[in-house]
Amino acid sequence: MTYQNLIVAIGERIATLTVNRPDKLNALNDATIGELGAAIDELRARPDVAGIILTGAGRAFVAGADIGELASQAPEAARARALRGQAIFRRFETSPKPVIAAVNGFALGGGCELALACHVRIASEAAKFGQPEVKLGLIPGYGGTQRLPRLVGRGRALQLLLTGEIIDAAEGFRLGLVNRVVAAGELAGAARAMMAQMLANGPLALAACIDVTGRGLDMTLDDGLALEALHFGDLAGTSDMTEGTRAFLEKRPPQFTGV
Ligand code: COA
């Protein structure tokens, strides 16, 4: 598929999805959000893709929802915009294939929310994070009020949400918003290296980790433990578990097939 505002590049089972509206700092207008939805569905379905890296073209990751479009929204349209974006970001979050945000620059508003919907965030030293919606008389509408406190705790999340302050990558790392900070020139390589490390493992096990941590956080501990045991049992019936355990015992690298 071809896209107006996205670039998709696939190699070595890794898809790199680049938001490409650099003159607007990759701001997410409705058209770009729609394309993100189509792209994540395409990449989830493609058999030649096992993991996804999301990044931005130019000096921004994504500088937020397109404020030009927000400026004229009426309540019903705004609610519909939030629900549509939330559903699309959820497709990233629930992807059984790992999704890494390689945050190259501004990740503000919807851009920070998009990074939060990814499984892991690697930031360049040039990255900046923030939820400045309150400065516009708004709140985040693409999941920021829900994912940020789950990731960094309510107090830290409310500090960012209520001040609208913009923080650098080092502070993002300190808060737990960012997994790793690297020099700007090393971002793409670091994201690929971490993805390659993930993709050396059993794909069914990766999908199970994503599912059980994602759903488990919304459950009681006992329900989450039950879900973990369910996946643990299912994986015991796979060829991948037979291969992974046998390869260890035979002191050789495993050859996973995803069945
Ligand atoms: N929506 C629409 N356009 C945006 C945008 C957004 N969220 N963020 C940046 N842009 C546009 C600017 O309007 C400008 O367009 P123009 O050249 O046609 O005037 C272009 O991108 C470059 O941005 P500019 O503001 O000139 O760059 P800067 O380096 O001076 O400032 C930011 C960078 C990120 C600090 C500033 O663009 C900003 O505050 N953006 C909005 C962030 C925000 O509030 N996001 C949450 C939205 S819910």
Give a short overview.
With 259 residues, this protein is of the alpha/beta class.
Q: How many separate structural domains?
A: 2
At CATH level 2, the architecture of the largest domain is Alpha-Beta Complex
Supply the CATH class of the largest domain: Alpha Beta
User: Helices and strands, in N-to-C order?
Assistant: EEHEEHHEEHEEHHEHEHHHH
Order of strands, widest sheet: 1-2-3-5-7-10
Quaternary arrangement of the chains shown? single chain
User: What's the helical proportion of residues?
Assistant: 40-55%
Tell me what portion of residues adopts beta-strand conformation: 15-25%
Shape annotation: globular
Largest sheet: 6 strands, mixed
* Small molecules (ligands, ions, cofactors) in the structure: coenzyme A
Mean pLDDT: 97
What is the CATH H-level superfamily of the largest domain?
2-enoyl-CoA Hydratase, Chain A, domain 1
User: How large is the radius of gyration?
Assistant: 19 Å
Unreliable parts: none
- Give the class from helix and strand content and strand pairing: alpha/beta
Count the helices. How many? 11
The CATH topology label of the largest domain is: 2-enoyl-CoA Hydratase, Chain A, domain 1
Total count of strands: 10
Amino- and carboxy-terminal Cα gap: 28 Å
Structure description:
This protein is an alpha/beta fold and 259 residues long. The protein folds into 2 domains: 6-199, 2-enoyl-CoA Hydratase, Chain A, domain 1 (Alpha-Beta Complex); 203-249, Lyase 2-enoyl-coa Hydratase, Chain  A, domain 2. It contains 11 helices and 10 strands. The strands form 2 sheets. Strands 1-2-3-5-7-10 form a 6-stranded mixed sheet, sandwiched between helices. Strands 4-6-8-9 form a 4-stranded mixed sheet. Coenzyme A binds at residues 24-25, 27, 63-68, 106, 108-110, 132-133, 136.
